Amino acid sequence: MSDPTKAPPSARRAALGFTGGGQVLSLRLADKDLTALLKALQDKQDGWYEVEATDGAVLVDLSQVAYLRVESGEHRIGF
Predict the structure, then answer these.
(1) 8 Å CB contact between 49 and 40
(2) What is the pTM of this model?
(3) What's the CA gap between 73 and 37, in Å, rounded?
């Protein structure tokens, strides 16, 4: 039985930054959900979009997103 508090191994860290500065939403997204979010942003969709993060759904106003930063997936130890 899997632990619902732990992200699946394929989940990647992402951060959405919003216009106006200062606000950043950090999420862990499965690859399929990250791909869907990227497509919505690239297609310049407007309005509210439901992002399925590993710890629950989040509604995001795509017209207010300034950037999306995605972790490279490399694990580093040390400096």
Answers:
(1) yes
(2) 0.76
(3) 17
